[in-house]
Amino acid sequence: xxxxxxxxxxxxxxxxxxxxxxxxxxxxxxxxxxxxxxxxxxxxxxxxxxxxxxxxxxxxxxxxxxxxxxxxxxxxxxxxxxxxxxxxxxxxxxxxxxxxxxxxxxxxxxxxxxxxxxxxxxxxxxxxxxxxxxxxxxxxxxxxxxxxxxxxxxxxxxxxx
Length: 161
Fold this sequence. Notes:
By secondary structure, the protein is mainly α. It has one domain (2-158). The chain has six helices and two strands. It has helices at residues 2-24, 32-54, 59-86, 90-118, 129-141, 143-147; strands spanning 153-154, 157-158. A two-stranded antiparallel ribbon has the order 1-2. Helix 1 runs antiparallel to helix 2 (32-54) and helix 4 (90-118) runs antiparallel to helix 5 (129-141). The protein is globular, with a radius of gyration of 17 Å. The model is unreliable at 149-161 (pLDDT under 50).
């Protein structure tokens, strides 16, 4: 029972992060782009929950669940960063922006690049899956800590270093 609750909560966490983007959207009118992202994250999360509940040890379900959860939380962090920047909180916006961009990119890359490598049986065409995934995650995450010291945001708009 605890596994079922954990899997469902992880899926809902990703969807909630993507939903926050729709709820925090500032431009007038329908946030079409934000709704499309919400639909994508919700679809990945739903399929991941179904796979994870029917085949608990299957790597495809675990990767989809992790990717959709991380992607959704990254989207939520980016929405909060935009809101913080609009409220004049540049330092908070910088931190949320870096964390959100890193999480968004990592989750998206897990689904777009990682998932096709292990689909449908959970094995890569070559043997050392852990090495490839670890090198990819480290390579993606390395540029982000360098930017944590400088937010890149200025009160009047974005400043690109």
